Amino acid sequence: EVSTDEPEMAFCTLANREELNPEEGSIHHCLYQFTRNETLTETNKLLCDVCTQRHCGPKNNIKSEKKYVYTNAKKQMLISLAPPILTLHLKRFQHAGFILRKVNRHIKFPEVIDLAPFCTAKCKNVAEGNTKVLYALYGVVEHSGTMRSGHYTAYVKMRAMNNHLSDLVLRGQSQALETEPVKGQWFHISDTHVQPVSVSKVLSSQAYLLFYERLL
């Protein structure tokens, strides 16, 4: 979504992202890098309709003269609508010349994550005054192997129904804020094999996909 209203708020977030100081190799660092402020210059300059009109006059003359004006700009991608279910897909491949390699590095991820530093200051479905947008982990997909072959397994949390999430999904209503992850038992699933595991086992996995549910 491209927003043109209140430009002074364009780069403001619900919580101060500069206080994060995220640890490298963590999901917070990934999100921080993905939503960082970028400067568009040189060949990446932005076509400015206002500047073009000032230079060329009325719009009906622009196409004929083709004197488009490009200008330096700033760009930042932030969350404008906090989803009931948050899915994070980690890029686990890299190019080494003409070779495509899998990235096996462990990325740290928490049981509860706060998206507020990555949300716009006027996030549409966050109550005014809230400075936290919390999500609890309930599923992880892990891949073992190489780019050519491998095996997918999953960690899933069996827990009681989240009434807060149901209200958010079915009626668009958010209730009181919870700060603790939903209690439940984690299971590791590999084809037809299912076994209970500890949360420490889950958090040490080489995550490929992360699934969080909103705690509001």
TrEMBL record:
* Domain USP: start-end pairs: 1-215
The top of its lineage is: Eukaryota, Metazoa, Chordata, Craniata, Vertebrata
GO BP field: protein deubiquitination
Q: Which GO terms describe its molecular function?
A: cysteine-type deubiquitinase activity
- Fetch the InterPro entries from UniProt: Papain-like_cys_pep_sf, Peptidase_C19, Peptidase_C19_UCH, USP, USP_CS
Q: Which Pfam families match?
A: UCH
Q: What is this protein called?
A: UBP16 hydrolase
What are the protein's UniProt keywords? Hydrolase
One GO CC term, this protein = cytosol
Tell me where on the tree of life, at the top rank, the source sits: Eukaryota
Q: Which gene encodes it?
A: Usp16_1
Q: Is Hydrolase tagged as a keyword?
A: yes
